[in-house]
Write a structure and sequence with these properties.
Length: 424
C-alpha cells in the first residue's frame, strides 16, 4: 500500500452498534448515514464495537471526520448524574419501557468518548446524531436527563408543552415540533422552509434521554416545546470551508422523509451531512498541506546552502586528487568546516583515520582543535537562534539534519577509501 495518503478520499469514522441476532452478536450502522456520507464525497470507515478497540484508535489514522449516531444510554458515571430525584420504582419502569436503550454498553461508551475527545483536541470535524449529540455534550462536561418523560413532566409543564420524543409504533412517521434559533447553522439550512417568519419545523426523534445541562462551549440551535435542547454547536469551531465542524443534533434529519419515498420533508434535511462532509474534505486538505509542506529557504539561507555545497565540492577534490589549497579555496572551505563543527562529532576511530591522511592531516588536525574549542561558538549560536522564529528554526533544523547525514556518510566513505589506499 502506498505511503502517500494525499490522494485518498477523506475518511469518516462511524462506530457500530451491537445487537443480538440468532444468539450471535451483530454490529451495524444505519444505511441512511452511510449513503449520505458517500453521496457527498467521503468514505465511511466503520469502527467495530469490539473489546479493546478504544486502545487501538491510532490504527484508524488518518481520521478526517467522526460521525457518531445510534446506541444505548450512556453510562451515567461518565457525567456523574445524580439519579436521586427518581425513585427505584421509576427507574425500574424506565428500564421496562425502554428495554432496548437502557442496557448500557460501556465498551461503546469508551470507544466513542475517546473519539470525541480526539476530535476536540485536534479540531477534527464531528457530527453527533441522537446519542452522538448526547455523548458530545458529556465529553465536554455537560449532563443528561436520565429520562425526559419522568424528569421534564415533573416540572409542571402545561399540556401544550408536553412532547412525545419517542414512538415505538411509528418510528419513521413520528414528528414533533421544534423552534429553530435564529442566526445558527440550523436556521440557515431550514430558512427557506420556515413559514410566515415562524421558526418552527417538525422533526423526527427517537430517544428518552437528552441534554440537561449544556456544556459551556456550545450554543443551542433548536428547542422542543418542553424546553429540551434539540440541537447545538460550537460557534468557535464551525466553518466548514476551513475544516471546522463540531455539532450535535438530537433529532434525525436523515430519517425525515415522506412516506414510501426517499424525498426529504424539507430541502434542508441533508444539509447537516453536506456541510459536515465539506468540513471533512477541507480538514483533509489542510492536514495534507501541513504534513507535506516543502522546505523553503529565504535568500540568506539559500546563499548559505550554496556556500556549504561549494565547500563540500572543494573538499571532495582535495580528498580525491590531493590538490594543494590556495588561500581562496581555504576560505571557501571554512563554510563546510563551521557546518561540521556544529553538526558532526568525530569518533576516536575517525580521528585516527584522519591523521593517516598525508597532506590532509594538517587540515584535519586544525579542524579537530577547533572542534574542541567550540564552546564559545555554541553559546553564540544559541543566542542567535534564540531570536529566530519557530518556523525559521524548524526549516534550519531540517536542512542541517539532512546535510549532516549526507556529509557524515560521504566523509566516512572517503576516509575508508583513503585508508585502504594507504594500506596498499
Amino acid at each position: 500500500m502506498s505511503s502517500d495518503l494525499s490522494g485518498i478520499l477523506p475518511r469518516v469514522l462511524i462506530v457500530s452498534r451491537r445487537t443480538l441476532r440468532k444468539n450471535k452478536f451483530v454490529d451495524f450502522v444505519g444505511e441512511y448515514h452511510l449513503d449520505l456520507i458517500v453521496g457527498y464525497g467521503a468514505v465511511p470507515v466503520i469502527v467495530p464495537r469490539v473489546s479493546g478497540v478504544h486502545m487501538l484508535l491510532d490504527s484508524f489514522e488518518p481520521i478526517h471526520g467522526v460521525l457518531l449516531c445510534e446506541g444505548e444510554d450512556i453510562d451515567p458515571s461518565w457525567y456523574e448524574e445524580d439519579t436521586s430525584c427518581l425513585s427505584q420504582e421509576e427507574l425500574e419502569e424506565i428500564r421496562r419501557l425502554h428495554v432496548s436503550d437502557t442496557s448500557i454498553d460501556k465498551e461503546k461508551d469508551s470507544i466513542e468518548l475517546a473519539l470525541a475527545k480526539l476530535c476536540l483536541e485536534r479540531n477534527i470535524p464531528y457530527l453527533g446524531i441522537c446519542r452522538g449529540s448526547q455523548l458530545l455534550n458529556v465529553a465536554c462536561g455537560g449532563t443528561l436527563y436520565q429520562d425526559i418523560g419522568k424528569e421534564l413532566s415533573n416540572k409542571g409543564l402545561e399540556e401544550s408543552e408536553m412532547v412525545m420524543h419517542i414512538n415505538y409504533d411509528d418510528y419513521d412517521g413520528h414528528r414533533h415540533e421544534v423552534k429553530v434559533v435564529e442566526n445558527t447553522p440550523l436556521h440557515h439550512w431550514f430558512k427557506d422552509s420556515l413559514e410566515d417568519d415562524k421558526m418552527d419545523i417538525l422533526v423526527n426523534s427517537y430517544h428518552h434521554q437528552g441534554v440537561k445541562r449544556l456544556a459551556q462551549r456550545f450554543v443551542p440551535m433548536a428547542f422542543a416545546p418542553d424546553g429540551l435542547i434539540e440541537g447545538f454547536y460550537d460557534p468557535d469551531a464551525y466553518n466548514p470551508e476551513e475544516g471546522k465542524f463540531i455539532m450535535g443534533l438530537q433529532f434525525h434529519p436523515e430519517r425525515m422523509r415522506k412516506a414510501d419515498s426517499d424525498e426529504f420533508d424539507y430541502p434542508g434535511c441533508p444539509f447537516a451531512y453536506q456541510e459536515f462532509v465539506k468540513a471533512v474534505v477541507a480538514y483533509q486538505k489542510r492536514l495534507n498541506t501541513s504534513v507535506q509542506k516543502p522546505l523553503k529557504l529565504n535568500k540568506e539561507m539559500e546563499n548559505k546552502r550554496k556556500s556549504i555545497v561549494r565547500s563540500f565540492s572543494l573538499a571532495k577534490d582535495l580528498y580525491n586528487h590531493g590538490l594543494g589549497m590556495s588561500s581562496t579555496k581555504e576560505s571557501e572551505l571554512q563554510e563546510g568546516a563551521e557546518f561540521l563543527e556544529s553538526n558532526t562529532a568525530l569518533s576516536v576511530q575517525q580521528e585516527k583515520r584522519l591523521k593517516q591522511m598525508g597532506a590532509t592531516v594538517r587540515n584535519a588536525g586544525s579542524y579537530i582543535e577547533r572542534l574542541r574549542q567550540n564552546e564559545e561558538r555554541e553559546k553564540m549560536a544559541r543566542s542567535v537562534m534564540g531570536k529566530m522564529s519557530m518556523e525559521q528554526l524548524s526549516e534550519l533544523l531540517s536542512f542541517y539534519h539532512t546535510m549532516g547525514q549526507i556529509c557524515s556518510e560521504v566523509l566516512e566513505k572517503k576516509i575508508h577509501d583513503i585508508v585502504n589506499d594507504v594500506s596498499l
